[in-house]
């Protein structure tokens, strides 16, 4: 499943790794590249280490709406924090959006200005949520308005509108950032997965293309890959799906539904229609393919002229209190910084995080970030944290039971299928993809969760903290930094690594 944005492009070339620099930024998505550029512009020697290639994970698979109206986020955040903290969030996102759109103007990155809409599909809960968002956004000073007449062919009873937001092709943006970073002396080293970090006075970042000593490390890896802050225990990973269609007259609006099931709609040059939604916790659903099919059915009902061209999927991380975690990592001695928890609004939050972290490395502070850094969890957030960990504990128990109770059946799984079981006492994940049968360890290399088969993408997904692996065990994303090792299954002739 490849996104509309990544399908036509070859991966960018890699620079050579270096042994020393001022700053190592880990991750070449929007957060890492904007941070690296800001630091390089300030005269620092910056190296970006990227495990795969530029935009390979969430940014290159985003729907890339650059918006200050973010579904029903403000009403949710106001339930969990004071107005001062939420106002800091809005100010950071405003600065992130404005920085990004200025950057697009100055560097000829194509983008389209569109109204953002949070709409209610029915007069029940969706309407209550949309109205609550209107009130919350107004309270926070956003110039929102209410409409009951949207030019769209699907059911709606009303929606909140914020004019003059924007949308873009995120790979166009990343291309421009890489070129600009290199012009400022920065390097982008791809195929370099960070596997650990040593630290005496200064950090030494170990990666699959060597080791780099530096002064500051920024982990812009979606979810942090070094477990120093235990962030994985405060985050939940949510996967969702997107489809692109050729369509003669897509609505020129950026819409998202209030309440479930989520439907996210925008247009793109072509003209094309994009439809997204159907989110679920990573590794915790009966069939990923079922989610894609439901998006297809919805589109066929409301846009019968749409001809599908691309289908893809991606995940993002939500913190227990809904706010991103941005800043110095505990036990990093002030040298390690982290940015995560954008909850599917990282086009503005990723830039805000980059502004905040680079300011702090350069000796300053963004004024809007102070109340966010100082926030104290309210009972609702503590309850959410307990919920995240209860679900993880349940995942551990059910995963272990699945392995213990199910010896692997003889023979290989059917084409496109995967199964988890034990071969003797060894937990094995076995699959068949493109005629090739393969067996790997069923235990996630992060903290040993039992992986689940993803039937839409033919991957092994960990339900605990969202690590994902190819059928042959290579790490794709999430907090795991090592591949699933091969596990030869000797009793069947056609199974092996
Ligand atoms: C389906 C979907 C739709 C979305 N739509 C929108 C939207 O419309 N608007 C919006 O604002 N936001 C949206 N988002 C959210 C937004 O896309 C993300 O928040 C944002 O792209 C995150 O960027 P990032 O740079 O932090 O992470 P990423 O883009 O994931 O970049 C992290 C990089 O780190 C690399 N990495 C990971 N581990 C290592 C390691 N050990 N060593 C080296 N490199 C490593 C990865 O390979 C990756 O390239 C959406 C998210 C999803 C899932
Ligand atoms: S992602 Fe943490 S155990 Fe798998």
TrEMBL record:
Domain Rieske intervals: 405-497
Record's signal peptide: none
PROSITE patterns: RIESKE
InterPro entries in the record: FAD-dep_OxRdtase, FAD/NAD-bd_sf, Rieske_2Fe-2S, Rieske_2Fe-2S_sf, Rieske_Fe-S_prot_C
Entry superkingdom: Bacteria
TM helices/strands, residue ranges: none
Keyword Disulfide bond: yes
Stretch list, region Disordered: 475-497
PANTHER family: RIESKE 2FE-2S IRON-SULFUR PROTEIN YHFW-RELATED (PTHR13847:SF274), SARCOSINE DEHYDROGENASE-RELATED (PTHR13847)
Organism, as annotated: Janibacter limosus
GO CC, alphabetical: cytoplasm; membrane
Protein's name in the database: FAD-dependent oxidoreductase
Pfam family, one: DAO
Keyword Transferase carried by entry: no
One Gene Ontology MF term: 2 iron, 2 sulfur cluster binding
Keywords attached to this entry: 2Fe-2S, Disulfide bond, Iron, Iron-sulfur, Metal-binding
Coiled coil: none
